[in-house]
UniProtKB/TrEMBL annotation:
Pfam families: Bac_globin (PF01152). It comes from the Bacteria. Keywords: Heme, Iron, Metal-binding, Transport. SUPFAM superfamilies: Globin-like. InterPro entries: Globin-like_sf, Globin/Proto, Hemoglobin_trunc. This is Group II truncated hemoglobin. It comes from Mucilaginibacter ximonensis.
Amino acid sequence: MESNKPTVPTLYDWAGGMPAFVTLFDQFYDKVLADDILEPVFKHMSAEHRLHVAHFVAEVLGGPKIYSESEGSHFKMIQKHLSKHLSEAHRKRWMELLLQTADELQLPDDPEFRSAFLAYLEWGTRIAVINSDMAETNEPADAPMPKWGWGVPGGPYIP
Ligand code: HEM
């Protein structure tokens, strides 16, 4: 029997799919490289960095497994942050520039999407800062990718 219950889109789909994430991180890292606080942290990043981060975040939010199947793993992502000694000032500016870029690109701004997106970014950036003060991680090499969903609202704002 067919269900009439509407299917809840993933955060990835609601944001606009992969083109939205690729553009978001492309424009975000342009801002990062023009920023006094973040430029010294990212000046040696690889040419693929922005695409890898786009693929990583897209996958966490329900998108295809491009990062974990062909570019890295959760473990590898954590390793990239080890001994980077990131500060709260770095993290705050990272958040500020990413959210500014999301607004400029007009990512969905319904309360449901933005609260879930922000929750993931808060979590991810705080983990990155914690790991950046360690020289090695206790995380198992086969740790699964995090999966983020809509949380309490359960789905997007439908007027
Ligand atoms: C949700 C939050 C974050 C995610 C999902 C994330 C994800 C990633 C990923 C996937 C890589 C590896 C990229 C590659 O393979 O080339 C990476 C590297 C890195 N990330 Fe993050 N990151 C986050 C937050 C941060 C923050 C807040 C900072 C600093 C303000 C930071 C600094 C770096 C640095 C310095 C590298 C290494 C760049 C290099 O190769 O030189 N990350 N991150």
